[in-house]
């Protein structure tokens, strides 16, 4: 399941782009139940970093924990376990949001006219370019009409990829 690119992208966002999170998830999946301290030792990563990742995963409801108090030391031990059954629904929700944004962006690209500063590599809508007198606000250079066919093709490819994943991957069928 974790080798799916859409799932990886969503997990990457959940873990705020911390790649160690994938290692943490793999340890959880392999062990089924493990303490944060054991994960820290196994991965040779600071305990605080492991806990931060676990809390992010917990907020997304992708892990659960049990808390036990050691009667001798009065310290709590947290045992973590994966709870990935909610992952497909989370992926679908996030990907639908991305899909909506891509479709809005495509509509803007299809219905708009754009201008481009070759020096600064900045793109502007016709309205913005007109307001600026067809001059770049950063370098003062002349703005040129921009052919956005490649941009539209890229957006269409991204939309098709996500829609294909939803339609062909059994992981997402019930959502």
Brief description of this entry?
One of its GO terms (molecular function) is DNA binding. By secondary structure, the chain is α+β, with helices and mostly antiparallel strands.
What does this structure look like?
There is one protein chain. With 175 residues, this protein is of the alpha+beta class. The chain has two domains: 5-82, Winged helix-like DNA-binding domain superfamily/Winged helix DNA-binding domain (Arc Repressor Mutant, subunit A, Orthogonal Bundle), CATH 1.10.10; 88-172, no CATH class. It is 54% helix and 15% strand. The protein is built from seven helices and six strands, in the order ααβααββαββαβα. It has helices at residues 5-14, 20-31, 36-43, 47-59, 87-111, 126-131, 149-168, and strands at residues 34-35, 63-69, 76-82, 114-117, 122-125, 144-146. The strands form two sheets. Strands 1-3-2 form a three-stranded antiparallel β-sheet. A three-stranded antiparallel β-sheet has the order 5-4-6. A hairpin with a 6-residue loop joins β2 and β3 (76-82). α3 (36-43) crosses α4 (47-59). The two termini are 16 Å apart.
């Amino acid at each position: 399941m974790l080798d799916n690119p859409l799932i990886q992208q969503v997990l990457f966002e959940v873990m705020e782009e911390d790649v160690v999170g994938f290692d943490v998830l793999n340890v959880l999946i392999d062990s089924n139940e493990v303490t944060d301290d054991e994960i820290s030792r196994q991965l040779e990563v600071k305990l605080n970093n492991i806990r931060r990742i676990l809390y992010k995963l917990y907020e997304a409801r992708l892990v659960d924990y049990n808390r036990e108090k050691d009667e001798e030391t009065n310290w709590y031990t947290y045992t973590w376990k994966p709870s990935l059954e909610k992952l497909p629904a989370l992926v679908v929700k996030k990907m639908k949001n991305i899909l909506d944004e891509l479709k809005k962006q495509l509509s803007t690209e299809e219905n708009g006219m754009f201008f481009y500063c070759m020096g600064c590599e900045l793109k502007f809508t016709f309205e913005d370019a007109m307001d600026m007198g067809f001059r770049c606000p950063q370098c003062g250079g002349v703005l040129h009409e921009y052919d956005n066919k490649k941009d539209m093709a890229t957006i269409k490819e991204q939309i098709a990829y996500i829609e294909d994943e939803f339609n062909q991957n059994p992981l997402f069928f019930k959502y």
